[in-house]
Amino acid sequence: MKQTFVTNSAEETIALGNKLARSLAGGVVAFFGDLGAGKTTFVRGMCQGLGYTGEVSSPTFAIVHEYIGGKIPLYHFDMYRVESVDDLYACGYYDYEGQGILAIEWSENIMEALPKDAVRVRMCYGETENQRIIEIEREDAE
Q1: What DSSP designation does 68 have?
Q2: Which residues of 91-100 are buried (b: 16+ CB within 10 A; e: fewer)?
Q3: Per-residue pLDDT tens for 84-102?
Q4: Which of 50, 94, 98, 139 is most buried, taking the most CB atoms under 10 A from its CB?
Q5: What residues contact 3, with CB distance under 8 A and at least 6 apart?
Q6: Does position 142 have pLDDT exceeding 60, yes or no?
Q7: Among positive and negative, which fits the CA dihedral 125, 112, 80, 63?
Q8: Pairwise CA distance, residues 58 & 40, whole Å
Q9: Domains in the chain: how many in total?
Q10: Do 27 and 16 form a contact (C-beta atoms < 8 A)?
Q11: What average pLDDT does the chain have?
């Protein structure tokens, strides 16, 4: 099922991420969208929804950040610089599968590695500076 949401602030995007995370028991959330579209902001909301209280930031240079201490662990990946399946092995991607929630930014770079049941979150700019159009597609949508 595909649902479309419009958020008009970072706070609303965080709230939507919070709501999605509370509905998940694990799996992959694959993010698609331009630079600055709000992917990390959405993941910040997911971490809040899981009860994680620490800092949440983009894993651009680290490739993965681990957020442990909430209801279930969330592993936040940035696949912007990933160019091959070998890169996925090198960053440990396959070691994290089945260990909690994998939130993956720049999923378009690893399409062949995404599970079929991944939740897909597409984000784009809206009509105003802070507005975002967010499409969430999942098999088990409520």
Answers
A1: -
A2: bebeebeeeb
A3: 878 888 888 899 998 999 9
A4: 50
A5: 135, 136, 137, 141
A6: no
A7: positive
A8: 6
A9: 1
A10: no
A11: 92
Contact assessment for residue 127 and residue 37, using Cβ atoms and an 8 Å cutoff: no
CB 21 within 8 A of CB 4: no
Q: Other CB atoms closer than 10 Å to residue 82's CB: what's the count?
A: 20
User: Hey, what amino acid is at 7?
Assistant: T
Could you tell me the pTM of the whole model? 0.91
User: Do the bridges between strand 64-67 and strand 27-33 make them parallel or antiparallel, or are there none, so unpaired?
Assistant: unpaired
Phi first, then psi, for residue 47 (nearest 5°) are -60, -40
Q: Is residue 142 part of a domain?
A: no
How far apart, in whole angstroms, are the C-alpha atoms of residue 113 and residue 95?
13
Q: Which two tokens stand for residue 14?
A: 């965080």
In the DSSP assignment, the letter for residue 44 is H
pLDDT tens digits, 34-55? 998 999 999 999 999 999 988 8
Task: Give the count of beta carbons closer than 10 Å to the beta carbon of residue 53.
Answer: 10
| Residue 47 within a domain | yes
At residue 55, what is the residue type?
A: E
Burial class (CB in 10 A: 0-12, 13-18, 19+), 33: buried
Gap between the Cα atoms of 76 and 41, Å rounded: 12
